[in-house]
C-alpha cells in the first residue's frame, strides 16, 4: 500500500490541472458576440469560473436577454472550446508533477469537472494526463453540478473510495463548497485571487491563497502525508 494509506485524490480540471480558462473565455466571447453581446470581458468571465457550461449559458440567457436556447448556446460554446482545447491547453507543470508523484505511489485518482465529457477527454488527451487519470466524471453525468457534491461523490463511488478518505484539489469557490458538502478534505488554490476570502474556501484543509504560483507538488504531497491517520 502507498505511504499515503487509503487516500484517494480527486482533481477538478479547469484552472486546477490545466490552464483552460483563457480557452473558455475565448469560446464564450465569440459565442456571445454572435448573439449580439460584443463586449463580454475577462471580468465578466470570472463570475463563471467553477460553474458548469450548462449553468453558464442558462445565466447568459437571463443576464443578456438572449433568444437562443440553452442547447443551442451550449453546443456553440462547446464546439468552439473543443477546437481550442485540442490544440492549445497547457497543464500546470507542478500539477503534472503531483499527478506523476501520486501515480508512482499507486494512489487512486479521478477527475471531476463541470466540463462536458468531450471537453474533459480532449484536454486530458491533448496534455497526456490521460496516461494517469482514467477515472473521469462530468457534471453532465450527475443530477447537479458544483456546488452540489454530486460529481465528487460519483468520482469516489467509481474509485471505490470512502468520501471521508478523499482529498479534492479545487480552484473555484463552488468546487470547494462541493468538496465540503461531499465530506471530503480540500486543497484549494483560488484561480481568481480576489476570491481567496470567499467563505467557501475557509472550509479547505489547505488554502493556498496565491493559487498556482504557490502550489508545489512536493508541498502538497507532504501535506497529504502529514494528514494520514497513523492508526
UniProtKB/TrEMBL annotation:
<dbReference type="InterPro" id="IPR023214">
    <property type="entry name" value="HAD_sf"/>
</dbReference>
<dbReference type="Pfam" id="PF00702">
    <property type="entry name" value="Hydrolase"/>
</dbReference>
<dbReference type="InterPro" id="IPR023198">
    <property type="entry name" value="PGP-like_dom2"/>
</dbReference>
<dbReference type="InterPro" id="IPR036412">
    <property type="entry name" value="HAD-like_sf"/>
</dbReference>
<dbReference type="InterPro" id="IPR006439">
    <property type="entry name" value="HAD-SF_hydro_IA"/>
</dbReference>
<protein>
    <submittedName>
        <fullName>HAD family phosphatase</fullName>
    </submittedName>
</protein>
